[in-house]
């Protein structure tokens, strides 16, 4: 749609549907036809008598290759085309072409949906005769994990402005002298904003919490359990990016359906770069340009990483080992810096300032001066 003031506005739907995707090329893996079935390590016939009796589920089971359907063999990988993904978005563009010393452009993408089963596994169940079928809860598993890394908001804007010449600078006198300094300047800038990437909370146990203990299969893992609202995944509090009390660890007998994926979202990116330049004509094809570029004008920092794995002592002792806060609510003195961050605290920042003590400060506000002679 054409608008006044040399502007144009565009609205578009953009979508994509991928099907028959190869699992190993879409963030997942090949299908293991010889994967150990869920619960196999709990069965009486799979217990190793040389290990003795243990109260920990799966602790006395045979080694992995002796639990497999094709006993003694390792992984049997198959590349399959069972994977798909679908993306929907609306894209808006507003542009003003360069006129009267001014131009700008704004591009905004609103992500509506991004779902699929890419990156997941095909969960198999084997019969005594060696035949295999897909587990009956495969659909539930894929539905629970259908959310891919949707970026809801992406904005890119730019503007350019020729600063007006000093009045009377062509008439001679003091105004003309000042015109040599103040005229022919141009200011431009770029704004970049976007939703943070999706991530999940994970768990670990110091003992007795491996896959073989929790799902009865070394090949399939359990998922962290959400007991409340963990929050959005981003906070202005460096030491508390999400609600750490909203999760607990999975227990023995899991079939990996405790929670889905891409539940949390990181902090929005926001950055402004600007430039100021002056062109001095020297006659003929010769031109002298003075230019100053300022990257990350407002010296902002964006938290891009946080300690998202909670470590418990064991499935029967859910004491948090990597706690960021003490029992009285005070910050654990051993975890004051991002390098030693506890569960829930930020441990990485991208390109934005050192106010919070982040080690990676390669992209604080940077100013670059240039003198360029063209002929």
Structure explained in plain terms:
This protein is mainly β and 375 residues long. It has a domain of 213 residues. The chain has four helices and 22 strands. A nine-stranded antiparallel beta sheet has the order 1-2-5-6-9-10-16-17-22, with no helix packed on it. About 3% of the residues have low confidence.
What layout of secondary structure does this protein have?
Layout: E1 2-3, E2 7-21, E3 31-32, H1 64-67, E4 77-78, E5 83-99, E6 102-116, E7 124-126, E8 132-134, H2 138-144, E9 153-162, H3 173-182, E10 185-194, E11 198-199, E12 202-205, H4 211-214, E13 225-226, E14 247-248, E15 264-265, E16 269-283, E17 286-295, E18 302-306, E19 309-314, E20 317-320, E21 346-350, E22 366-374
Parallel strand pairs: 12-19
Antiparallel strand pairs: 1-2, 2-5, 3-4, 5-6, 6-9, 7-8, 9-10, 10-16, 11-15, 13-14, 16-17, 17-22, 18-21, 19-20
């Amino acid at each position: 749609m054409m608008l006044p003031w040399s502007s144009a506005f565009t609205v578009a739907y953009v979508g994509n549907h991928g099907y028959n995707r190869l699992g190993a090329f879409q963030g997942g893996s090949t299908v293991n036809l010889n994967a150990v079935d869920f619960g196999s390590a709990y069965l009486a016939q799979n217990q190793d008598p040389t290990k003795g009796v243990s109260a920990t589920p799966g602790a006395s089971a045979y080694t992995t290759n002796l639990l497999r359907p094709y006993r003694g063999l390792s992984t049997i990988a198959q590349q399959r085309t069972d994977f798909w993904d679908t993306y929907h978005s609306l894209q808006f563009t507003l542009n003003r072409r360069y006129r009267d010393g001014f131009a700008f452009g704004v591009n905004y993408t609103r992500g509506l949906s991004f779902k699929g089963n890419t990156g997941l596994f095909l969960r198999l169940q084997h019969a005594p005769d060696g035949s295999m079928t897909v587990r009956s809860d495969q659909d539930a598993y894929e539905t629970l994990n259908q959310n891919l890394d949707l970026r809801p908001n992406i904005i890119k804007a730019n503007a350019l402005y020729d600063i007006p010449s000093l009045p009377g600078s062509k008439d001679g006198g003091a105004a003309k002298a000042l015109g040599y300094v103040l005229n022919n300047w141009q200011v431009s800038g770029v704004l970049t904003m976007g939703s943070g990437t999706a991530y999940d909370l994970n768990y670990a146990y110091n003992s007795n919490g491996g896959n073989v203990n929790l799902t009865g299969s070394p090949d399939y893992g359990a998922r962290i359990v959400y007991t409340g609202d963990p929050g959005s995944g981003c906070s202005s509090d460096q030491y508390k990016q999400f609600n750490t009390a909203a999760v607990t660890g999975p227990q023995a007998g899991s079939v990996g359906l405790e929670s889905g994926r891409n539940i949390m979202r990181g902090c929005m990116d926001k950055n402004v770069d600007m430039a100021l330049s002056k062109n001095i004509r020297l006659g003929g094809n010769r031109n002298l340009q003075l230019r100053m570029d300022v990257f990350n004008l407002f010296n902002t920092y964006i938290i891009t990483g946080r300690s998202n794995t909670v470590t418990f002592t064991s499935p029967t002792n859910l004491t948090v080992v990597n706690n960021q806060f003490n029992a009285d609510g005070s910050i654990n003195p051993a975890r004051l810096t991002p390098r030693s961050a506890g569960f829930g605290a930020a441990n990485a920042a991208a390109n934005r300032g050192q106010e919070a003590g982040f080690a990676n400060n390669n992209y604080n506000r940077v100013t670059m001066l240039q003198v360029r002679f063209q002929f």
